[in-house]
């Protein structure tokens, strides 16, 4: 699914940027370009970051 229409970044692209350490929409933009242009997708970027960080901190058992 496209998250950022300006750069053509998909949720997969954004997830990879988050997995590599991006923890803000600004860092995602630096890592993969998503959110760098019009900014309309930043809310979605933050939702993806929040979902990813919840997964990281969730207990595994
Ligand atoms: S839709 Fe992502 S910067 Fe425009």
Automatic annotation (TrEMBL):
Keywords annotated in UniProt: 2Fe-2S, Electron transport, Iron, Iron-sulfur, Metal-binding, Transport
Coiled-coil annotated residue ranges, if any: none
The UniProt record lists the keyword Iron-sulfur: yes
Protein name: Bacterioferritin-associated ferredoxin
Residue intervals of the BFD-like [2Fe-2S]-binding domain: 2-50
Cited InterPro entries: BFD-associated_ferredoxin (IPR052371), BFD-like_2Fe2S-bd_dom (IPR007419), BFD-like_2Fe2S-bd_dom_sf (IPR041854)
Pfam families: Fer2_BFD
PANTHER family: BACTERIOFERRITIN-ASSOCIATED FERREDOXIN
Family in the record: Belongs to the Bfd family.
Domain of life assignment: Bacteria
Matching Gene3D superfamilies: BFD-like [2Fe-2S]-binding domain
Molecular functions (GO terms): 2 iron, 2 sulfur cluster binding; metal ion binding
Entry keyword Signal: no
């Amino acid at each position: 699914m496209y998250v950022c229409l300006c750069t053509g970044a998909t949720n997969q692209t954004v997830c990879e940027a988050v997995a590599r350490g991006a923890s803000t929409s600004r860092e995602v933009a630096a890592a993969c370009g998503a959110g760098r242009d019009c900014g309309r997708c930043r809310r979605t970027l933050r939702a993806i970051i929040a979902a990813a960080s919840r997964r990281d901190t969730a207990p595994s058992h």
